[in-house]
Specification:
This protein is of the alpha+beta class. Helix content is about 50%, strand content about 20%. The chain folds into 3 domains: about 5-165; about 225-315, Helix Hairpins; about 320-470, Histidine kinase-like ATPase, C-terminal domain (Heat Shock Protein 90, 2-Layer Sandwich).
Length: about 475
């Protein structure tokens, strides 16, 4: 089962690494102890083998005869499993041996340095074989070379193994004694290290709709692991605060617009009912009320369209959208705004080098161009021209720029033109300037397709709005 606690995971990992380190140290200690004890054992074995070699000498009464002096045998280190030896003459005859020992067994494993290993009655032994060595006793009057012998001396390894085992046990016990306080210190250090995180979470938990202040602890800013999280929380909080503020502003503006529209309709109806009127006057009044109702309906439709577009942008673009001819949607939008352009004596021109296709809903494209052209025509001087430039700046981008030579927008208002219910000038009334939703709808649609929209304007020189769509997925 996966642990949910981050502190528990860190403690387990650290303690596990400590255990691994202790195990490695114990293993290293055992290996070093075994190596050193074997080296000392081999040196003792060589010394005893040389002692056996020195016990072979010439008989004083019969100088040509060799004898073996058993009085100088080296003592065994293991009383329960005594050392054994065997001496052979140069021709292979058995000269001397330990009582009851038949020599090296068939399962003996030899090494390159004259040592051998074997087991006898389940007990491990190590032996040294001194092959064809001269005896140390020399006859002063004899011209013949000293006799040569082969000495085999073996001793039990049980004591070495017991010492190595004791080293492992003592090292393990010492490691466990060290691990216990280290584990406690690890738990304490981990909990203390996570205090800034707990403090950060506690302060973040105090954020409410009415309480937006977030004072992150100093340690959260200076700790490398917590600094990105702290910055992300502060950025997220700032964005949420702005989002709530914009939502409240939108709700207030919407309520104001709806209240104004309803008040206009209500006041118009009250005026009609105040005094008796002729049928023509009633008809004219009702037609005015219907116009106000149409305006209210247009407002509701735009709000719903904006809400649907933003929801669609959050859920992802619609699938199975076929290719749309971009210039054709521009022409369609120009046709819908032609009457307004003719009334203001404003000409509209489309500049495009070749047909361009995008995988964008044609109704969405037409709505974008209609809003941009409507704004451009309304705020252009009589006799001026509005231009739509369709370009492909690179292989991955399609650009449409709507330019006019109208009155322009004040620099202070340019950063806010895409906000809902935003009107650049007080002279733009609800009837001349619309609801302030057109550019907001354009921005929502463009960004839903992964595009980008930007506006540049200078008072008295005109306005330019550039829309860019990614060409990926379409054909140019």
């Amino acid at each position: 089962m996966r642990l949910k606690s981050l502190a528990a995971r860190i403690v387990i990992v650290v303690v596990g690494l400590d255990l691994l380190l202790i195990a490695l140290l114990i293993t290293l200690g055992v290996v070093v102890a075994r190596t050193e004890l074997l080296a000392a054992f081999d040196e003792s074995l060589r010394s005893k083998a040389l002692s056996i070699r020195a016990l072979v000498r010439y008989d004083e009464e019969s100088p040509a005869q060799l004898i073996f002096d058993t009085s100088g045998l080296p003592p065994s280190a293991d009383v329960d499993h005594p050392d054994t030896f065997m001496v052979h003459l140069a021709k292979g005859e058995l000269f001397a041996r330990s009582p009851g020992w038949a020599g090296l067994p068939a399962n003996t494993r030899y090494s390159q340095n004259d040592f051998a290993r074997f087991r006898e009655n389940g007990v491990p032994f190590r032996a040294l074989v001194l092959k064809n060595v001269e005896i140390l006793d020399r006859e002063e009057d004899s011209a013949a070379p000293p006799a040569r012998i082969t000495v085999i001396y073996a001793a039990s390894l049980l004591e070495v193994r017991e010492r190595v085992l004791r080293v492992g046990i003592y090292s393990g016990a010492a490691g466990i004694l060290i691990l216990l306080p280290m584990s406690w210190l690890t738990v304490w250090a981990v909990r203390r290290s996570l205090n800034p995180l707990h403090d950060l979470a506690a302060r973040a938990g105090k954020i409410t709709v009415r309480q937006w202040s977030f004072d992150a602890p100093v340690e959260a800013h200076v700790t490398p692991e917590l600094a990105p999280l702290t910055a992300a929380l502060e950025t997220l909080l700032h964005r949420l605060h702005d989002s709530f503020a914009r939502q409240r502003q939108f709700t207030g503006d919407l309520a104001h617009e709806l209240k104004t529209s309803v008040a206009i309709i209500k006041s118009g109806a009250q005026v009609l009912l105040q005094n008796p009127r002729s049928a023509e006057e009633y008809r004219a009044g009702v037609e005015g009320l219907l116009g106000d109702c149409d305006r209210l309906e247009s407002l509701v439709e735009r709000i719903l369209r904006l809400a649907r577009t933003e929801q669609w942008a959050e859920e992802g673009k619609r699938e199975n959208i076929g290719p749309t001819e971009l210039v054709a949607t521009c022409d369609a939008a120009i046709g819908r705004v032609a009457a307004l352009a003719a009334a203001k004596q404003v000409s509209i021109k489309v500049e495009s080098k070749s047909p361009i296709q995008l995988r964008v809903d044609p109704d969405d494209l037409e709505l974008i161009w209609l809003n941009l052209l409507d704004n451009a025509v309304r705020h252009s001087e009589s006799g001026s021209q509005v231009t739509m430039k369709v370009e492909t700046p690179n292989a991955n981008t399609v650009s449409v720029c709507v330019e006019d030579a109208g009155e322009g927008i004040a620099p202070a208002d340019v950063p806010h033109v895409f906000e809902r219910f935003r009107r650049g000038e007080t002279s733009r009334t609800r009837y001349s300037g619309g609801f302030g939703l057109g550019l907001a709808i354009c921005k929502a649609i463009v960004e839903a397709y992964g595009g980008h929209i930007e506006l540049a304007s200078a008072p008295g020189k005109g306005t330019s709005v550039r829309v860019e769509f990614p060409a990926a997925g379409g054909e140019s």
